[in-house]
Amino acid sequence: MREGQNAVIYRADYQPPPYWIDAVELVFDLDPAKTRVLNRMKVRRNPDLPAQPLKLDGEELNLARVLVNGQGTSFKLEGGRLVLENLPEGHEPFELEIFTTCAPAKNTQLMGLYVSNGSFFTQCEAEGFRRITYFLDRPDVMASYTVTLRADKRLYPVLLSNGNRVGAGELDDGRHWARWVDPHRKPSYLFALVAGQLVCREQKVLSRGGKEHLLQVYVRAGDLDKTEHAMHSLMASVAWDEARFGLPLDLERFMVVATSDFNMGAMENKGLNIFNTKYVLASQATATDTDFANIESVVGHEYFHNWTGNRITCRDWFQLSLKEGLTVFRDQEFSQDLAGEASARAVKRIEDVRVLRTAQFPEDAGPMAHPVRPDQYLEINNFYTVTIYEKGAEVVRMMQTLVGRDGFARGLKLYFERHDGQAVTCDEFAQAIADANPQSKLHELLPQFKRWYSQAGTPRVKATSQWDAATGTYRLTLSQSCPPTPGQADKAPFVIPVAWGLLGPDGREVAHGLHVLTQASETLAVEGLAAEPVPSILRGFSAPVILEFDYSDEQLLALLAHDTDPFNRWEAGQRLAVNRALAAIRGEAGAALHLDAPFIEAMRSILRHPTLDAAFKELVLTLPAETYIAEQLDVVDPQRVHAVRESMREQLAAALLHDWAWAYEAHKDCGAYRPDPVSAGRRALAGLALTHLCIAARRTHDPVWPGKAYQRFKDASNMTDRFNALAALVISGHELARSALERFHAMFKDEPLVLDKWFSLQAGAPDRGGNILPAVRQLMQHPDFNIRNPNRARSLVFSYCSANPGAFHRPDAAGYVFWSERVIELDAINPQVAARLARALDRWRKLAEPQRSGAREAIARVAAKADLSNDVREVVTRALAE
Ligand code: B3K
Ligand code: ZN
Fold it and tell me: What pLDDT does residue 588 have?
């Protein structure tokens, strides 16, 4: 077996640790080839458990010495673990000293201690600390850390770890040292160190109590001018958590460090967050509005972990959503609060729901479906999923809906009063929110509500209506069900908060309310109505469910025109579009799709609407994603879905030609660049308009709009406009795209994050006669491509395999062959990234033939490979399981 291969872990098997580690002193002699780590721990037996050997986790370590209270001792190595049997009797603490070495330069997994661009970084969550030293590497073991770093001063002038720097000095032979003490106890997954040639932007801030804190953002020397937005986001985060939840910064110094080699977005290490450069660096010339918004939300997310995750952490990794679902909810609320106005808040809500429905719903319906609190895993890294994060956030949001905004803040306060400094479970969180609101529905229904934590799958709510004209009574019957998921055949009813409203014939709202659905089927009735209303159900997407209601086109058009709930207003437009797409897909292959006038006119009136925000218009006018359309089908031919959506887009382009032209001209100039929601919305709408104008020009061979797009591409003063113009040319397949792409590369050849966009745009472009795969294969040979860098791998390989279904799902299976080659190639380098890629074929069972057989064969080919990582093995085994 490959080192670290293990068996399935079950939540039900949880046992408290047999030993506690109260304090750790680490001394690092940093060297890329061979770093020496001296680890001195204060250990004591857990008095609540019978005496047993101490088994410390370790991975890819070279062990040199083990001392107990300064004396040599006997030890064994068992499956990577260091086992100590002859430890002092009794419950007195003892000192355990372990000396190991590791090889950061050879660490391509980017877990533990590794080198990126000549600097040292760490990533310990979930189980990376064991790649640095032997330890009880589990989140319920919390210790005080003192860390001494020693390194060559010229190569590594900056030496950072968690907490406060308490000393520093010179050593002989050109080396220097720094010592850091973290004032807070923490689990090992929150440990971090950084050493390298870095510079920082600094900012002092005052908390409400008048305490001063130092904020720092560290980057490579040339990047300092791209840190303003990250710092600004950090300052806003500090202020927001204190204002909204009364949670102040509990550190003298809070550091953010950026690295270009990182497996995910960022990491909330106590006081020393480590970030993917993608979520730190931004300038108007290199980052889009979306990048700016993502930076704000990721900086917020990691900062909010300082309380939800770090002050109160997880008892075990099955509780991951305790910190992730809650912290995503917090970062979503943060971005909404910063967006300000109701309509900008709604735009953010729609964007969040779009992610949930295009990524989490498919996960919940596929082979990797798991509850928000899973019961088992083979590799925990595979469970950093949209279910744990985004569905977990929806579960927290439903709690807030059930107890109210103030009630939720009270609940969070009680949660900290009860559990600050502890490692707890999701049960304890839900209990605190409920107990702080004893009169609430949440309190009354808590055991049933918690099924959201234990049952996987997306519930369906089927609504039917009944109108009694004689009494003016409107009845809505809501029935819930949830399909089986792997290992869970039968589901009990959920608690589903359904926000609703009724619109009268003139479009005005005649009633609204919140119905908390708890039974399999319930009916709500509204009396005293003058005419049959149009129901607006699941307003604001009040629960993560699929709502089925047999809306007529007239009803949807009424909602699109009048609903006071912006979410459902947008949703009505999406339903109109999805219905048309499905009708075309289910119709005769090749049957011409003709978009009807009422739909076109409805889209036109939104686009031309005098008061709606540009950002909202852009969302309404964007057709539902191919993956979202595919989810509505039992059998999917992704190329057909793609062709139908393309055809709809072409018709929208042609039918609204003058409106798009107006929209472009009216929104293209936003004055001096600011990434605020209003001007970002204007740029987004101008970009969408330009794409449609270029698409329309393809049929008419009219050179005007492609020419304007090219001009815009050359002259744009910010990356959003420049990239949108480039994308318009690439998406419409215009011949100017080639030279624009070349120019773009030449302009930004020294900007890795912009080159990622360049790769990703080409790999994600619409397929024309099978041209994308050869282009992707060719781009793999490009001197700027490097599969070891996760951002670059994602920009090319993932953009093709996971984000371009029309090009990937080729009938000749060549896309799948490419996928299997890359999964295997990446697994030898970085199993975490490989396993993410492996999930591109999660939904293979839904595919039509010949894709279905081709995909199964490709997965089987990967599964047959000896020596796969746990990560990839778990994904492909589950994909093939009956
Ligand atoms: N907690 C980290 C994720 C760690 C992933 C480990 N495979 C980032 C975050 O959610 O904030
Ligand atoms: Zn997180």
Answer: 67
Q: Quick one: residue 426, left, alpha or beta (phi over 0 = left, psi -120 to 50 = alpha)?
A: alpha
Whether the bond between 438 and the residue before it is cis, its omega within 30 degrees of 0, is no
Q: Which residue has a Cα nearest atom 9 of ligand 1?
A: 267
Report the sign of the C-alpha dihedral through residues 555, 558, 560, 566, in that order. Answer: negative
pLDDT for res 593: 83
Site of tokens 């939540």: 11
CA distance 46 to 68: 17
pLDDT at 789: 98
Return d(Cα 486, Cα 498) in angstroms, integer. 27
Contacts of 843 (CB under 8 A, 6+ apart): 362, 365, 366, 630, 636
879 preceded by a cis bond (ω within 30 of 0): no
Strands 313-314 and 423-424 come out as parallel
H/E element holding 273? strand 272-276
Q: Report the C-alpha gap between 534 and 442 in whole angstroms.
A: 29
Q: Which residue has a Cα nearest atom 8 of ligand 1? A: 267
State which residues of the chain have pLDDT below 50.
1
Q: Exactly one of 127, 268, 296, 302 is catalytic; which is it? A: 302
Query: Which residue(s) pair with 476 in the sheet?
Result: 465, 524
**Whether the CB of 264 sits within 6 Å of ligand 1:** yes
How far is residue 546's CA from residue 459's CA, in Å, rounded to a whole number?
A: 6
Check if 807 has its Cβ closer than 6 Å to any atom of ligand 1. no
Alpha-carbon distance of 267 to 259, in angstroms, equals 11
Packing angle, helices 566-586 and 553-562, rounded to 10: 150
Place of tokens 């959503």: 321
Taking CA atoms only, the protein residue closest to ligand 1 atom 4 is 125
302 is known as an active-site residue: yes
pLDDT at position 1 is 42
CA dist., res. 601 & res. 596, Å (int): 9
Tell me which DSSP letter residue 519 carries: S
Q: Which ligand has the nearest atom to the CA of 325? A: 2
Read out DSSP for 27-46?
EEE--SS-EEEEEEEEEEE-
Tell me the three-class secondary structure of 454-473, residue by residue.
HCCCCCEEEEEEEEECCCCE
Exposed / middle / buried, residue 762 (Cβ in 10 Å: 0-12, 13-18, 19+)? buried
* DSSP β-ladder status, 142-152 and 19-29: parallel
261: left (phi over 0), alpha (psi -120 to 50) or beta: beta
Amino acid, single-letter form, for residue 543 = A
* Cis ω before 93 (30° cut-off from 0): no
Q: Is the CB of 302 under 6 A from ligand 1?
A: yes
Contact 140/15 with Cβ under 8 angstroms?
no
Distance CA 175, CA 191 (A): 23
Helix H or strand E segment including 755: helix 752-763
Element spanning 214, H or E: strand 212-219
The owner of tokens 């009944």 is 466
CA dihedral 838, 839, 840, 846 (to 10 degrees): 120
How many other CB atoms are there within 10 angstroms of residue 416's CB atom?
A: 17
Pull the structure tokens for residue 362: 């498919």
C-alpha 266 – ligand 2 centre gap (Å): 8
pLDDT of residue 655: 98
Strand-pair category, 253-259 with 313-314: unpaired
Q: How is residue 534 written in tokens?
A: 């149009």
Q: What is the pLDDT of residues 686-698, one digit of tens each?
A: 999 999 999 999 9
Instruction: List strands edge to edge, sheet with 473-481.
Output: 521-526, 473-481, 460-468, 546-549
| 386 ligand 1 Cβ < 6 A | no
